[in-house]
Amino acid sequence: MIPKTIKIGPIQYEIVKTDKLPEEVSGEFVPEQCRFFINQDHHIQQQDVALIHEIVHAILLQGGRSIESEDEDLVCILAHGLLQVLRNNHFLTEHLYRIRF
Predict the structure, then answer these.
(1) Which fold has domain 5-98?
(2) pTM surpassing 0.85?
(3) pLDDT digits (tens, 9 = 90+) for 51-86
(4) Gyration radius of the chain's alpha carbons
(5) Distance in angstroms (rounded) separating the CA atoms of residues 94 and 42
């Protein structure tokens, strides 16, 4: 189940499942609104990829990259790779969650 919000760095983002995105668009990051829009008409697996994809965009933006930069190929590669690593290694997220600084 996709959460309703996610915190990335100092910013709390709202995650909105919508049927208002074009059919060919799985997700959209709108930094001015602190929102991710996920196409609810797409399969849940594609929604998961879209969420991670948009999270990577947010991380890059917070790191100083322009939202208009040509990072789309990199974002796609990272989104698919990160999602697969997280799915295949649930112990990793459990371990990282336990670490306190």
Answers:
(1) Arc Repressor Mutant, subunit A (1.10.10)
(2) yes
(3) 999 999 999 999 998 877 788 999 999 999 999 999
(4) 14
(5) 28
Residue showing tokens 């997280």: 86
CA–CA distance, 38 with 50 (Å, rounded to integer): 7
Q: How far is CA 55 from the centre of its chain?
A: 3
- What lies within 8 Å, CB to CB, of 64 at 6+ separation is none
Tally: H helices and E strands in the chain: 3, 4
CA angle 21, 25, 31 (to 5 degrees): 75
Q: Where are the domains of the chain?
A: 5-98
CB distance 79 to 56 below 8 Å: yes
Residues in the chain: 101
